[in-house]
Design goal:
By secondary structure, this protein is α+β, with helices and mostly antiparallel strands. It has one domain. The protein contains three helices and four strands, in the order ααββββα. A four-stranded antiparallel β-sheet has the order 1-2-3-4. Helix 1 runs antiparallel to helix 3.
Length: 97
Amino acid sequence: MKNQKMIKELKNNLKEAIELHEKMKNSYFWTPPSNASSRRSYEKNNSFSFAYPGLTVDCETSCSCKNIYYSGKFYYEGKKTTLTKIKNLYKAVCEIA
């Protein structure tokens, strides 16, 4: 029962990270919000991170006055990996759950 809950949570977190990464990958060309509080709110709403044993995902968004920057960092078993491997992991978790 506990394992099923953990797998479901992992599946949801992986899905959210993949969707955020796909959404933000070309964000450098977007126009940021005009005032500072809106930029901080935008950063908070478009950043996501989580960790499980052997897996760390850190999707960070930051805004300057003129640009929006996005950084997606994925680590699997302590080594930096690509989004493709994270997508493959998501597919594997979907087959289990």
